[in-house]
Amino acid sequence: MHKQYSSHKGMKRVFALSTIANSLLAPACYSAAENRPNILFVISDDQSYPHASAYGSTFIKTPGFDFVAHNGWLFNKAFVTSPGSSPSRASILTGLYPWQIEEAGTHASSFPLKYECLPDILAQNGYHVGYTGKGWGPGNWKISGREQNPAGPAYNHHKTKPPYKGISNISYVDNFNEFIDKKEKGQPFYFWLGANEPHRPYESGSWKKENKLVADVAIPPFLPDKKIVRSDLLDYATEIEWYDNQLMQIIQILKQRGELDNTLIIVTADNGMPFPAAKATCFEYGIHVPLAICWIQSIKQGKISNELVSSIDLFPTILDAVGINPPKECEGNSLLPYLKGKKENTGRDIVCAGRERHSSARHNNWGYPVRSIRTEGLLYIRNFQPERWPAGDPYFITDKGEHSPMHEAYFDIDKGPAWNFMISNRDSIDIFPYFLHATAKRPYEELYDIKTDPGCFHNLIGNSKYEKEACLLRKKMDTLLKKTKDTRFLNPENNIWDDYPRLNGPIRTFPSPQP
C-alpha cells in the first residue's frame, strides 16, 4: 500500500527550491482547446538512482529534476526494463518488455516496423510530435523501413558550444523553441528531450571548474573509495548538472508561453551509470533510475512514493492522460489513477528487467542473457548462460591476429578513469573484490537483499533463511516470462538473440570458447 511521507531527507532539498518553483507558477491563460495535456518526456543517458538532489545527493545539484519532484511526485523505486540504451528506450516507446520486440530488444540492432511507438499514436491523434538529442538508439531504424526515429521527428540542427569535452553540442533549448514555434495554435504537443549526458566520455577534471569537492562524493558500494574514483564520479555529476540546466530552461520556456500548468512532465533515465557493476548489468545500479512526474493542473504536488514502478508503465500513463486506450499487448500499468489519488498503489509487487547483447564483447558477437525480478527489497537474477563472461571476454584478437593482453577487453563496461584504475590495480588486496565483482563469471541464479546489500555482493541463493523467497521469485519469473512469451525462457536453445545483426559500433574478434 502506498505510504505518503511528510518528510524525507531528499525533499528537504526539493522544498528549499520553493522560491524557484513559485516564481514559475504564475497563473497562465489557456485556449478553449485545453485539457488534453502537453507531454514533455525527459530521459538522460546513463544515470542511476539516487543521483539527483531531490534524493538527497551530496554531490549533484539538479534544480530542474527537483522542480518536477516538488510540483508532483518523486519515485524512490523506479526501474527500467533493460540496463542498456536501445532496448530500454524501445521498451518505453512500445510499452513492451525487450524480449517481446525482437531486434529492438537488443542493443544497436533494428526496430521492426510492426511495433507501433508512442509518438506515432499521439501524432495520429492530433499531437505535434518531436524530439531533440538522443531518441531511440543506438541502432538503425531506417533499415526497418521507418521514415523517422521511433522517438519522432528530429529537432537537432541548433547547436551550442558545450562547456566541456564529452558534452553534446546539440542545443536542447533552442531546438525545443523551434519545435514549439512550429505547432499550431492550441495544438497539444509531445516532446522527447533525450539528453546525451551523462554518457561517457567525460572531460577529466571538469568538476574542478565547477568548484566541486571530492569530499562531497557519495561512493556507490560497488566502487572503491579512491580519489580517482571520486573524481570520475564528479565528472559524471558535472554532465548531469549541465543537462539538468537545459531542462530548467525548458521549464521556464513553458511558463513563459503559458503551457506549464497543463504539461505532463516525466523525467527519468534509460539505464544506470556508466561504471563497472552498473550499466549493462541487472544489478541494482544498472536498472534503478531516477523518476519524477508532475502535471501541475491535474496532480497534487509534493508527494514521495516507495511504490514499485517499471518504465513500461510510462507508455500507458501518457496515453491515459491524453484519453487514448493503450493497445491490448501493452504490459505496463497506467500510473495516472495512483498519481491522482484514486488508487492506493501502482498495482505492482514486482518489476522485471533483462538484457541480451550489449556491445560486441564475446566470441561470435554473443550476448549475456539475463532476466531479473526486483521486489520491494529483494533482487532475483537468472543468468541463462553462466558459462559466458558477464562483462565480456577478458581479451580479444587484435587486427594483427594476436591475442591482446589479459584483462584488456570486458567491452560491456564503459572505459573511464575509475575502471582503468580498477584494472591496473586489480592485484591489490583492497581493489580485487571490486574487480572480481564486475568481471567474474556468475552462477545461474543470484539473490540479493537490497536493503542491506545494494552493491549486490552477497548472493543469498542457498541461504536457508531465504529459501522461501527464492522459490517464490523463481515461480514469479517463470509465470511472467511464460505469459510474455519470452523465447529465452520458452526455448533456451534458440540462439535468435545472438543472431540478430549488430548494426552500430565495432565488431570485434574473440577466441573461440574452450570445450
Give a description of the structure.
It is a single chain. The protein is α/β, with parallel strands linked by helices and 515 residues long. It has two domains: 9-17 and 39-347, Alkaline Phosphatase, subunit A (3-Layer(aba) Sandwich); 353-499, no CATH class. The protein contains 16 helices and twelve strands. It has helices at 9-16, 18-23, 63-70, 85-94, 118-124, 172-181, 206-209, 227-256, 284-287, 314-322, 336-339, 417-424, 432-439, 467-483, 487-490, 496-499, and strands at 38-44, 73-79, 128-133, 189-194, 263-269, 288-289, 292-294, 303-310, 351-355, 370-374, 378-383, 445-449. The strands form two sheets. Strands 1, 2, 3, 4, 5, 6, 7 and 8 form an eight-stranded mixed beta sheet that branches. A hairpin with a 3-residue loop joins strand 10 and strand 11. It is globular and about 65 Å long. The termini are far apart.
Attribute tags:
single chain, 515 residues, alpha/beta, Alkaline Phosphatase, subunit A, 2 domains, 8-stranded mixed sheet, 16 helices, disordered N terminus
The domain tally reads 2
- Intertermini distance: 51 Å
| Topology pattern, helix = H, strand = E | HHEHEHHEHEHHEHEEEHHEEEHHEHHH
Summed up, the helix count is: 16
Nearest-integer average pLDDT: 93
Number of strands: 12
Question: What is the strand content?
Answer: 5-15%
Largest sheet: 8 strands, mixed
Q: What are the segments in which pLDDT stays under 50 over at least 5 consecutive residues?
A: 1-33
Assigned CATH class of the largest domain: Alpha Beta
Q: From the 3D coordinates, which CATH architecture of the largest domain would you assign?
A: 3-Layer(aba) Sandwich
Looking at this structure, what is the CATH superfamily of the largest domain?
A: Alkaline Phosphatase, subunit A
Q: What general outline do the C-alpha atoms trace?
A: globular
Cα-based radius of gyration, to the nearest Å: 22 Å
Looking at the chains present, what oligomeric state does this protein adopt?
single chain
CATH topology of the largest domain: Alkaline Phosphatase, subunit A
| Percent helix | 25-40%
Structural class determined from secondary elements: alpha/beta
